[in-house]
Amino acid sequence: MIESLLWKNRNKGNVKTLNMQTHQQQISDLITLNEELENYFANTIIPQLFVDSELILRKYTPPAMKQFSLKADFIGKSLLDVHENFRFPTIIENIKTVIATGKILEKEIQTTDMRWFQMNILPYIKRKDNKTNGVIITFVDITARVKDLRDQEKLVAEHELLLDTIAHDIKNPILALSLSLSAMKLDVEGKANRMPKLIVAMERSLSNIKNVVEDLVQAHWDKQRNESAEELINLENIIEDVRLSISSLIHESGAVIETDLKATEITFVRRKLRSILYNLVSNAIKYTPKNRKPQVKIQAQKCGEYLLLKVSDNGIGLTEEAKAIIFEKFKRVKSGVDGSGVGLYLVHTIVNNTGGKIEIENNAEVGTVFKIFLKN
After folding, report:
1. Which residues pair with 260 in a beta bridge?
2. Which CATH architecture has domain 231-375?
3. What predicted TM-score, i.e. pTM, was given to this entire model?
4. Tell me: the pLDDT tens digits for 281-327?
5. Structural fold of domain 39-141
6. How many CB atoms lie within 10 A of CB 89?
């Protein structure tokens, strides 16, 4: 009996000792995990915020402290008290949306200091009750990318215009000069003076000019064919690039851009598709009266052998006279609007050269719909 009690007590002692060891191991594991998290927070290069479901700022990374001028005593404060540091007016609204829905929110934002960020708000979900207990917010600076996209669109327009000028505006005078020389040659043929020799020299020079122009144009198009091959493109990505390219214009005008994409893929040259949408969307915003918030809708659907892109706006509309000249180079339907008059000319050229077509619908007072049919 006594031995039995001793055995039981000994077992209880062993269990107690084992439980204490397990508890100590759990504490040690938690300390290690916390140290690892603290080390991550201290060394990450990405600005991050941790906000709980009551909008209390619980933690932030050093890059966030530097980027948004945060102070140590901000920890534990409501984001409502410090939201101005983030220089983005709707950040509170966005956080509340993610907490309410439990869905990730991704968007490009422009802060009041004119910098651009890719902002991702992720719900922090407690596994125990599967409820959103806060959010983790990351900011990636994309200011340089936005600038590159704008510069790229500008270069594309200037490049296309230069080559078109060489191919058409210069070649035509050369042809006229060549015909004039042929006529002169007939008039003086057989006469023993210096004129025939001069004509031969002029013809040689003219031929050299034509060769230079043709080589330049051919080299350009060969390079374009090699560097800008057709590829399978996701339309949503192109639209996002366009949004970034005209981000300042969207911000200043308060423009709203909606999409309704029943088809999202097309085999096309990426820069050309981006140029089409860039010019149509930016024009839609520019040609909306100042007293009206621009509303642009981009739609896409399959239409036989074509992908039909529709860009609708609530702008000034087009008269029949304007519709007749809108695709001509350097022609503009309204003065006082930024631009060079080549945007729609480039759109028309790109679409026609790829076997597509353009149709316009409008009532000449409010709104225009450009229907772009692209061979798919």
Report:
1. 299
2. 2-Layer Sandwich (3.30)
3. 0.52
4. 988 998 888 888 999 999 999 999 999 999 999 988 887 887 878 88
5. Beta-Lactamase (3.30.450)
6. 12
